[in-house]
Amino acid sequence: MSTLSEAESKRRVAQFGVPVVPDAVCADAEAAVTAAEELGFPVAVKLTAPGLAHKSERGLVRLALGDRDAVRVAASEILAASLPSDGTPALLVAPMLEGTRELIAGAHTDPHFGPCVMVGLGGILAEAIGEVAFRLVPIGARDAEEMIEDLDAARLLDTVRGEPPVDRDALGAVLLGLSALVDTDGDVVAVDLNPLIVVDGRPIAVDALVELR
Fold it and tell me: Which three-class secondary structure state does DSSP give residue 11?
């Protein structure tokens, strides 16, 4: 098994219609500063490399960087914290997205039933809450709709504290894209989109990991 870098993973899922946050891959701190200016502050800076997971636990993520100096310092610290096992690491720079609701979506291959897709509550509480719904691949539009409605917390997708409701069609399109990805690409065994941040009612993937056979 091998895991694509976050940047490569985003490109792969975007090919199947999954909306992803724009980003730039940079080799050094100065390139990261330039990218941040082009993308617009505030930004997030992360280490990106094939097979790299658990970036936050290793201190390889910096969020809400508001100016050139903050990006330069963060990028330098992140590169200094990389390990030889990370291969040839690079910096991933992306604009910060504002949204109070986070979802998770993904796909994996069950050893008994085969490929399936999932959706649920996302962010740092995803594993603790375990609020998810699954369907076997391939799925259709009706399946995607039922997955969303199966969530006990589906009411959180409605209007909350003045924020617009989550666009269920857009969320369903993410699930359909994941289904198409694993159904047509036999090398893909797992996909993790966590979180999908809801911005103006529409889910956007700010992190992605694709695992290959």
Answer: helix
Cis peptide bond upstream of 138, omega within 30: yes
This prediction's pTM:
0.90
State phi, psi for 15 to the nearest 5 degrees: -65, -20
How many C-beta atoms surround the C-beta of residue 2 within 10 A?
A: 11
Q: 64 and 109, same structural domain?
A: no
10: pLDDT strictly greater than 90: yes
Mind giving me the DSSP string for 115-173? EEEEEEE-GGGHHHH--EEEEESS--HHHHHHHHHH-TTGGGGS-BTTBPPP-HHHHHH
1 lies in some domain: no
**Alpha-helical regions (H) of the chain:** 6-14, 29-39, 68-80, 126-129, 141-150, 168-184
| 167 and 73, same domain (yes or no) | no
Question: Model confidence over 109-146: pLDDT tens digits?
Answer: 988 999 999 999 876 655 656 689 999 999 999 999 99
